[in-house]
Amino acid sequence: MEERKHSAYVFDSYRVDAEERQLLRGGEHVHLTPKEFETLLVLVRNCGRVLTKDALLKEIWPDTFVEEANLANNISVLREALGGGGKDNPYIRTVARRGYRFVAPVSELPAGDDAVGGNGAGAAETLIEKHTLTSVVIEQEEQEAEPVGAETARLLLPAAKTRRARLLEVLRKRRVLVALAAVAALLIGVGGGLLWGRRLWLKSPPGFQQLTFRRGLVASARFTPDAQTIIYSALWEGRPSALFTTRPESPESRALGLDDALLLSISRQGEMAVLLKAQVSFSTSGTLARMPLEGGAPREVLQNVSDADWSPDGRELAVVHWVEGVCRLE
Description:
Elements: E1 8-11, E2 14-17, E3 22-25, E4 28-30, H1 34-45, E5 51-52, H2 53-60, H3 68-81, E6 92-95, E7 99-102, E8 107-109, H4 122-136, H5 138-142, H6 150-196, H7 198-202, E9 216-223, E10 230-236, E11 242-246, E12 254-259, E13 261-266, E14 271-279, E15 285-292, E16 299-310, E17 317-323, E18 326-329
Antiparallel strand pairs: 1-2, 1-8, 2-3, 3-4, 5-7, 6-7, 9-10, 10-11, 11-12, 13-14, 14-15, 15-16, 16-17, 17-18
Helix pairs in contact: 1-3
């Protein structure tokens, strides 16, 4: 993917500062996470070009397996940050079954140039004219028609505007229906709450956030003592169980380098109890081992163990131990 090196990119009232890694709107900072900003920067640097989803994933998350859902989430956040409008956002367009395109005219500021539009030289004017032509024909590309010339695009603009007006009218009516349905559902919900008791309708449902996106089974998961990191054991793509670490704010997981192991518990002192060489069947069993969170080789403790958990002070382990076919709690 071609990457033009400039310190900043300007479109309308927005400025994408590649050196400071921030988005400004009218001089005010617009909050974006690092990966959301990286997505915007790649789109702006390749304005007017269709970027496939695979190309964007490789550029934004190099050497990392990430689901397309993360890219779609970044695009949704960027559209909201750039004025909303969803798929009708005037800056980022979806190209059906291909990817995304940044369609707004962009002025590129080289390193050391702090000018923001206004009195730009002829180079900026030429660039704006080129991207304006690209935005004219995008309606046809999104309908998967053959590329058309500028003259044909100008002839098609009235019909395209009429279709857009009809679409907006349908969307407005749909929003009204959705709002009415929401009000009706709210009234029904309130009535049901009054019938079944105040306690039921005052309770808020729990919120859930997906942290893993691979195919397989998560066998167990625990928070570390700082409550900011999650350690889990999983069997991905038919492979043996292994240990991984992730954080709630990140879609990425990192392997801890311990294969054929199941996580059982984590103590307050930051020590893991793991099951090595686990035989997963109707009743799981293996070798109990202790392992520090900072890394290092596990220290084997006891064989033929089915489960274990740390005491509240983190000094002792309660163990489910198989002895001569009898399951004992030790």
